[in-house]
Specification:
With about 90 residues, the chain is α+β, with helices and mostly antiparallel strands. The protein has a domain at about 20-80: YaeB-like fold (2-Layer Sandwich), CATH 3.30.2310.20. It is built from 2 helices and 5 strands, in the order βααββββ.
Length: about 90
């Protein structure tokens, strides 16, 4: 069953700042996440309850609420050491 996908305002701004090719790839990945919440090679981030997937050199960090059937995109960022800090 497909989950509803929400994107935080900050994640929308981050996504719009990416190059056009990356925006398309990230948008397609987010669309697929609504149907496959935990695709292969997904990583659960320790202690935060968030999940992370790779899209080329970019990362999508998201939260899953199974009760509300809601997937929330928290951050879209280039892969760096601080991509997942502060979440």
């Amino acid at each position: 069953m497909a989950y509803k996908v929400e994107i935080h305002t900050a994640a929308q701004k981050q996504m719009l700042s990416l190059p056009k090719e990356a925006q398309v790839a990230v948008a397609l990945s987010i669309d697929r996440l609504g149907n496959t919440l935990r695709p292969p090679r997904v990583k659960k981030l320790a202690d935060s309850g968030l999940w992370r997937i790779r899209v080329g050199q970019f990362r999508i960090v998201y939260a899953i609420d199974d009760e509300a059937q809601l997937l929330t995109i928290v951050r879209v960022a280039r892969r760096r050491e601080d991509t997942c800090k502060g979440l």
